[in-house]
Amino acid sequence: MTVDQSLADLSDTLFSIAVALYSVAVVAFSAQLAFGRRPAARQLVGAGAGGGTGDGVAPVETPSTARWGLIGLGVTVLGALVHTGVLLTRGLAAGRLPWGNMYEFATAVVLVGVVAFLVLAVRTPAVRDIGAFVLAPVVLSLVAIGLFLYAEAGPLVAALRSSWLAVHVSTAIIGFGIFFVSGIASVLYLLRVRHDARGDDAGSSVLSRLPGAATLDRIAHRTAVFGFPIWTFAVIAGAIWAESAWGRFWGWDPKETWAFIAWVVYAGYLHARTTAGWRGRPSAWVNVIGLVVMVFNLLYVNMVSTGLHSYAGVS
Amino acid sequence: MSTVAPPRPDAAPQPPARPSLGRRVLDLWLRWWRRLTAMRTAIILLLLLALAAIPGSLLPQRSLSQNNVTQYFADHPALAPWLDRLYLFDVFSSPWFAAVYLLLFVSLIGCVVPRLVEHVRALRAAPPPAPRRLLRLPDSAELTTPLAGPAALDVVEEELRVQRFRVVRREPGAGPADSAGSSGMELSAEKGFWKETGNILFHLSLVALLLGLAGGKLWGYEGSILVTEGQGFCNSFQQYDTYSSGPLVEGADLTPLCVDLEDFRAEYEEDLTASSYTADITYGAPGEDGRSTTIGVNDPLRVDGDRVYVTGHGYSPRFTVALPDGRVFEGVSAPFLPADQATMASQGALKLPDLGAGTDDQLALEGFFAPTGVLQGGILTSIDPRPLSPQVAIIAYRGYLGLDSGLPQSVYSLDQSQVERGRLAEAGRANLAVGESLTLDDGTAITFDGYAQFAALQFSHDPGQVWVLVSAISLLLGLLALLLLRRERFFARVGPDPGSGGTVLTVGSLTRGGGESAARFAELTDRLRTALDARSTQPPAPSSVGAAPEPEAPPRDR
Ligand code: HEM
Fold first, then answer.
1. Which of A181, B48, B254, B268 has its CA 20 to 30 A from that of B81?
2. Atom in ligand 1 nearest the alpha carbon of residue A271
3. Does the CA dihedral B463-B469-B472-B474 come out positive or negative?
4. Where are the transmembrane segments (chain B) (predicted)?
């Protein structure tokens, strides 16, 4: 299988375009935040007081801020389409699924994060207010991926030639992408709670324009609840694959170890969120740690330690 | 959900007399047991488990690579023994790691078994009575209707039964609906038992999974061996290059199976990425006519719970050694281990202890094999993993190999201490292409004839594996039910409406899981309102129509 170089180049160009579009979206979402009026400061929501209706008071929408939000959303959709194109052309160029090395994997994870955000934002308008905070990390991640993880399109090594690649890696990507959004929501929740606790009414702070703490907490929890079974499945599928590729289903290879750590941390988060004494901030921290573990697993384990998962192809 | 249990009494009320010792021990035990099975403890244990796994990925582990551990000892001679004392090179089989997960599982069992009992009981019991203040529930509303109280509740009950709730009606303050059949003034309804079933299934599956893992560790074994084309091995610990086995494995229990490697092929893409390895093998019980099959990466041989894998491959250079006395040894060869997977540049040693008369004229070759060799400044390197132009660079030694010295030796390298002590002396060196020879000082001629391929094969036996797989699947199913389903309780109570003389219907619901409950509750109350309005414009139905409460009817799940 030869690599179609013109398609591979097209993929690289699309990558830059996607980054540019996301950057425009960051600007639009920031404009929405900046021009939005401060929400009526009538709420100081207790952590985790879920279930209620009126807790997520979004900034009072004026037509112009709503327009900025819609522009941001539209540009993000465009960016996501181009981003999908990056992976499609990669896959076509190399004649295989576009997640054979770390560059492709990380690019796909970010795409899932963007799509998860879009789905949330379309269904719950309050989520649009965190657009800038989702898209800015997206842009930063993509730039870092382009700079540090870039690998030429190429064929897969033998061990990766299995239909489990599709099953295991795509679910890992989806789980990771959803946890990405979840982790951001928890970070924003922590910022928001701190802001609320200070009773900071100056209104100058961007934080006061975020959705309410309870809404952020709920976004974080719902996404994690969605991501967790997917991640569980990815780990199980990985074990099944390892059984046929490496001769054992579990061997505490560094990647396996960190997947396990992440799984346990997310289980801890889901428990913590429903346990007295852990609700609110402590559980949000556990979720943030979960995301840190996921990122560590991607970067450190692929680039620094060596193990059976070292297909990263980073030079 | 709220998992805050109602505050448990911290200790039994102090009786006036000093309690007996047994009593105090029991109290203490109970207190600790409650603390261990509390959810807060479980979370801390979970996070501890995550923390405990970290050193297992940052430090080299014996279970993964004994070589890396040895290297670490060499690099950190002061630190390593201390780490070793803390089991930090065997984290996942260390007592402290086991302590964390065993405590966690005790906590889990202590937590889940009571829930299981409770759940089974709840399946048969009527939904709990309505809380006194319905308007305090997370979702609640008040509806007014001109209907009389019982008639209004009839409407609610009908609607709830359509939605597959289990419904029971009670007099306020009374126990379960009295068998007199009178319509009570309040109603409790419940659905979504699968959520809790999923929860219990999930947690019990974790226990089953752990048992499966433990079984595999106790009764499983694994052996690896390098097999050159045309040769084979039988499943016994004596034959393996390396093996590991659980404490309950007896050598005699090993599955009788022999495997012969007929042919091995490695295929490459244009950019020299390996695309596939396949090994044609025959296998069968010893003495049996073997069956043929092909195994490869991602495609092991599976027979009766045992598996045979290809885990690697390499080249065994072949030589002919012609001694000055006229004896000729053809086809002597040994596997050379790949030092670089990309070019398959390989290193190894060939020991010939039995050529001469005594132990002091043993012969050995140590060297380097390049499947596609090029000479750069007299140094042989490999530029391609395929055997396009095989070459070797060898050094021949003569002397005493030290094989019978009692110290273990690697078969893949010479014992350098023998060279240093001068007991093995170099007798010649050369770079050889196929067909070329090196003649030593005493006239011995060593001819490089070519190569054979070898495969690294691994035999694995893990009796817990299927058990683990089944547990993992049921774990996932339980998790999906637990996370995606919701459990709802719905309550309604009627009271007189002082304004209109009609009825005030207070409804409230308590939802566990499933995200937004407010929207669903609003939808349900809308539907109730419509139904109430429709009914109140009709002539009032007799209060004992169709969907009369059947408090004694066996509850339906969902
Ligand atoms: C190996 C350790 C454990 C793991 C991996 C684990 C994992 C999980 C997960 C992923 C959930 C779903 C959380 C959710 O509902 O959103 C859950 C629920 C639950 N777990 Fe565990 N668990 C473990 C141990 C325990 C222990 C020790 C207890 C009791 C002390 C416990 C009690 C519960 C309860 C009551 C729920 C239901 C929570 C709910 O319905 O929201 N678990 N568990």
1. B48
2. 13
3. negative
4. 41-59, 96-117, 200-221, 466-485
ipTM for the predicted complex: 0.81
Number of cross-chain residue pairs from A and B with Cβ atoms under 8 Å apart: 135
Identify all chain A residues contacting B63, using CB atoms and an 8 Å cutoff. Answer: 251-252
Task: Give the whole-angstrom CA distance, residue B322 versus residue B446.
Answer: 6
- Reported as a pLDDT band with limits 50, 70 and 90, residue A248 is confident
Render pLDDT for A32-69 as a digit per residue (tens, 0 to 9): 877 765 444 444 443 333 333 334 444 455 666 778 88
Query: Could you give the 3-state DSSP secondary structure of residue A105?
Result: helix
Radius of gyration of the CA atoms of chain B, in A: 38
Mean pLDDT, range B112-141, rounded to an integer: 86
Tokens 């009320």 locate to B13
Residue with tokens 């879009």: A118
pLDDT above 90 coverage of chain A, percent: 36
Polymer length in residues for chain A: 315
Query: Does B479 contact A232 at a Cβ distance shorter than 8 Å?
Result: yes
pLDDT per position as a tens digit, B140-187: 888 888 877 788 888 888 888 888 888 888 876 554 444 333 345 888
Report the candidate in A258, A192, A194 with the shortest Cα–Cα distance to residue A220.
A192
> Whose CA is closest to atom 5 on ligand 1?
A267
- Measured CA to CA in angstroms, residue A69 lies from A35, A192, A212, B429 at distances of 11, 20, 18, 76
* Residue carrying structure tokens 């390049």: B370
Min Cα–Cα distance to chain A from B397, Å: 36
Please name each of the domains of chain B with its CATH number. Answer: 30-107 (no CATH), 126-191+486-537 (3.30.160.110), 221-461 (no CATH)
Rg (CA), chain A: 20
Place of tokens 């390396």: B242
A195-199, A233-237, A279-283, B376-380: which range is least confident on average? Answer: A195-199
To the nearest 10 degrees (0 to 180), the angle between helices A281-303 and A254-272 is 170
Coil, helix or strand for A53? Answer: coil
CB B195 within 8 A of CB B512: yes
- Output the average pLDDT for chain B: 82
Ligand 1 pocket at CB < 6 A: A 225, 228, 267, 270-271, 274; B 1, 3, 37, 39, 42, 46, 104, 107-108, 111, 199, 203, 206, 482-483
**Tens-digit pLDDT profile for residues B467-481:** 999 999 999 999 999
Parallel, antiparallel or unpaired: strands B242-245 and B258-268: unpaired
Tell me whether residues A277 and B40 touch, CB distance under 8 A: yes
3-state helix, strand, coil in chain A (%, to 5): 70, 0, 25
Residue B451: in which H helix or E strand, if any? strand B445-461
Is beta strand B437-439 parallel, antiparallel or unpaired with respect to B232-234? unpaired
Q: Kindly determine whether residue B222 and residue A272, on different chains, have CB atoms separated by under 8 Å.
A: no
β B379-382/B503-512 pair status: unpaired
Q: Which two tokens stand for residue B489?
A: 């309780």
Q: Which of B97, B197, B199, B205 gets mutated to test ligand 1 (max ligand atoms within 8 A of its CB)?
A: B199
Band (pLDDT 50/70/90 cuts) for residue B312 is confident
The phi, psi pair for A68, rounded to 5°, reads -60, -40
Among the listed residues A66, A75, A78, A73, the one whose alpha carbon sits nearest the alpha carbon of residue A33: A66
Mean pLDDT of B419-436: 85
* A177 CB burial (10 A radius; 0-12, 13-18, 19+): buried
> Does A161 or B337 have the greater pLDDT score?
B337
Phi-psi region for residue B91, left (φ > 0), alpha (ψ -120 to 50) or beta?
alpha
DSSP letter at A45? Answer: P
Which H helix or E strand runs over A258?
helix A254-272
Could A51 and B138 be called an inter-chain contact, meaning their C-beta atoms sit closer than 8 Å?
A: yes
pTM summary value: 0.82
